[in-house]
Known about the structure:
Layout: E1 2-3, H1 21-28, E2 32-36, H2 38-47, E3 51-56, H3 65-72, E4 78-80, H4 83-90, E5 98-103, H5 110-114, E6 119-124, H6 129-141, E7 146-149, H7 159-164, E8 174-176, H8 179-182, H9 185-191, E9 195-199, E10 205-206, E11 216-221, H10 229-233, E12 237-240, H11 252-263
Helix pairs in contact: 6-11
Amino acid sequence: MITIADASDERLDDYRSLNDQAFRRRYEADRCFIVEGYVAIDRLIESGHTVRSVLLAPSRQERFGVNATLLAADDVPVYVADRGVIADVVGFDLHRGVIACADRRPHPSIDELVVGARRVAVLEGLNDAENLGAIARAAKAFGIDGLIVDPTCTDPYSRRTVRVSMGEVLTLPVARAEPEQWSDLGERLTTAGFEVWAMTPAGEDDLWAVAVPDRLAVCLGAEGPGLSRTMLAGASRRVRIPISPTVDSLNVAQAAAVTFAATTRP
């Protein structure tokens, strides 16, 4: 573990201005991403991503000891800095006191993702990082084999997404569709052997009544607009989650968790 006392030390450049989203998008690009917290860093190490470095407060050294030993075998530097120094670097008080930076690796293609998969989630227009993170966590919990996101979907490896997913998004295959792939995605998935469900409050089929096929793609849209006409038209079924008429709708992450649980039950 390497002690750093100066916030201007170049070795901490990966962690600068974490709340400046425009700067972080430029800095991280397709190169790297940030992971916060013990559990998320556990998942990061399990996922096989190349860890660039770790930054932690002195009070976190003992708890991080096992991971530090694992990372030392790959010559990954673990920097230790006082909380004041860390706050100066990241731009706020980092309550968790432990953070890591890792290299991005290419996402699989859609064709690669669906090979051997039985359950996939298709996400359209999700621009809320916390919703995407919660969906990824639920997907891993209920045995979803991978996520397919549209060209406009928020970054699956943004700091907030990774944090809310507890790092689980790093262990899930995620494919980002190109614009020309999205218009006929339903047909592509059907050809690959999937039944495609468009989840919508206006669906004709009740989630609790419809038979669950062997291979299923569940499509979820952003809150408010929901799924596009293109996605609705490409679906095999339009499925709703029956809820109390006194409630307008479910949050998309809640709807995803309910659907994943229902479609992966024994």
